[in-house]
Amino acid sequence: MSVRYSKYFPGLIFITDLLLLNWAFYSGHLIQTKSYLWDADTTLFLLFINITWLSVAAISGNFKIKRPLQLGDNINKFMASLIYHLLIVFVIFYFFKLAYIPRFFLVVSYVLFFCFVVIYRSVVFFCLDFIRKKGYNNRQVVIIGDEEIAQRLLNSFSHHPEYGYNLADFIAEERVLNMAEQELTDALLSKKPDEIFICYKQMDGEFLKRLVQFGDSNFIKINVVSDLILNNNGAQLVNYNELPILHITSHPQISMKIRFLKRAFDIAFSASVLIMGFPAFLILAIITKLTSRGPVFYKQQRIGRNEKPFYIHKFRSMRIDAEKFGPQLAREYDPRVTKWGRMMRKTRLDELPQFWNVLKGDMSVVGPRPERQHFIEQIVEKTPNYKKLLRVRPGVTSIGQVHYGYAENVDQMRDRVRYDLLYLQNISLNSDLNIIFKTVKVMVQGKGK
């Protein structure tokens, strides 16, 4: 394309987000008051949220779309901005009591804003993906250096056309060595690249510095490609003064931002379930008490984050002597399960009290299922990777629970671990919401056991 329309995307998304913000809050006001008119307090509030959003968005840069396209990362960045915006609004209007703003209006408006933006950005990313796969909106790139590394990079480009890269030229390491520096820069400029990928196993630092300066002077993005193959290991670039260090672990590092967002979501979600679900809790408790002998709630020690034990809470679904012969896993048509307990387990209603564990910080809404030490020792013996799951808070639901369900023996528990390890590679609010939606579907269909 002769015209690069992608440079207009950030501004378009910035303006559209602002319009969606106003649409969401106007809709929230309409739902709350059934009126199209604004009072003085609401007008002041709307002005404040617009100014605050402009500031938060400008600072966070959540409207910027980077290559390669990663919708999940973009949504997470938007979520961070949304939470910061909500905190500022809450402190200013509720702590300082500047004006009365109904909480229902606030909750509905923010939920609508989140939904509007997620839908809008999903459409934008889908369109960009489609356009780039058709060969449009692509960037011209030049690759310099080792042929083996360059080939791996080209394979990545060919498998992911949505990245939007076209190879303008490849200049092999041997050819670079036989070229004068001016000749090399002239050759690069003649291809009019948008980005240059430098692929070297060993490279002169001064030469690299001059290439970076050349890129800065000519508005060309310079990328340095490592010759490492990490096989999904976690990697993080850390700068020690002027020395870049690649920190590599066998598990992905969860950023502080993701930890903060995940915990904030856990608190908000669990508090909402406990408050709004109280009538349902009361009904479940009464039925549990009337249908079988024993306490309403059942607690059991599980192993949580960093191998710290805690007590998990559930509505009791089994007879009180269910484990008189030692730890046992539940199985299909288990005679120890009460008739009412079987219905609760199929709809997973017995696990609702675990949201108290979430609120306390023992668990997360989404995360690997917590197990007992007795079974963990057997799993680790055959699947040592299980210990990676103990680095994060266990969850009320998990990708393993959704796709595999409850395990009846240790071998099935090991099979389920594979799903949870995949989740560990892709922790984000986007994936958490997806798992929650799938869990609700399982509950409605009664596919638990």
UniProtKB/TrEMBL annotation:
It comes from the Bacteria. InterPro entries: Bact_transf, EPS_sugar_tfrase. Pfam families: Bac_transf (PF02397). Keywords: Membrane, Transferase, Transmembrane, Transmembrane helix. Residues 262-444 form the Bacterial sugar transferase domain. It is a multi-pass membrane protein. The chain crosses the membrane at residues 12-31, 43-61, 82-101, 107-131, 264-287. GO terms for cellular component: membrane. One of its GO terms (molecular function) is phosphotransferase activity, for other substituted phosphate groups. It is found in: Membrane. The keyword Membrane applies. Belongs to the bacterial sugar transferase family. This is Exopolysaccharide biosynthesis polyprenyl glycosylphosphotransferase.
